[in-house]
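How a chain folds remains the central question behind the approach discussed here. The record that follows shows the chain in one-letter code together with its fold in token form:
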Amino acid sequence: MRIAIQENLLPRGSLRDKFALAEKLGFEGIEIWGHNIEERLGEIMEIKQSFKVAVSTICSGYRGDLLGLEREERELAIRDIKVRLEAASKLEAVGVIVVPTFGKPKLPDPWPLYERIEEFERRLLIAELKELGKYADDVGAFILLEPLNRYETHFINRLEQAVDICNEVGIEHVKIMADFFHMNIEEASIPESLRRAGGYLHHIHLADSNRLAPGFGHTDFKGAFKALKEIDYRYFMAFECRIPRPIEESIRKSLAYLRSLM
């Protein structure tokens, strides 16, 4: 298990400054925002050569909506995700974090073809992921499906739902990620959900129950880390949280807490 941090959580400065601070603090990776990745790719590739810190993952940043109302929205999302998958490959990152849709359904009522809108959305997403998954296989970067809590999306809230999608897609580079904040809301047992996800789990977002840095809330990280050891989890875990001030001191405290459990 390696610990990373999202670039925006490091105090302001140039990207080179952020890499240097991440290395100084003891992180092994940085999660890069996917916005404008085409314009930033050359700079990121150049900077990362100067540091031991790796690029762990690319976090979303694509336009459109895989489950959007208009075909143009869905096609735009597919094109943008492909661009980010190629960037992830060039950066030697694990992959690209993908949330199929935010909020409520955008598509019309599919009855009588389907009883529930989620059935229609599922068939659509599986078809899209088969196309994206083949591209991901070709470039060697993973699509990382992220379940969100019910207040942020109606679609895919738990790890087991994301695993079911992966099983039906049946492509090597379509996997899932887990976010402790969302799991704290949706999963009956975080350790058990991690165990059941097993080999499908290729990335993790770290946040405590209150979305602060780990150790500043009441999430049972000890039990969760025990489960991760049992499934031999070897990928990154990236801070995606709010960090109390003073930032560097809080980061060090949280890192020490996490490493004591690892």
In short: Strands lie at 2-6, 29-33, 54-59, 95-98, 142-145, 174-179, 201-206, 236-239.
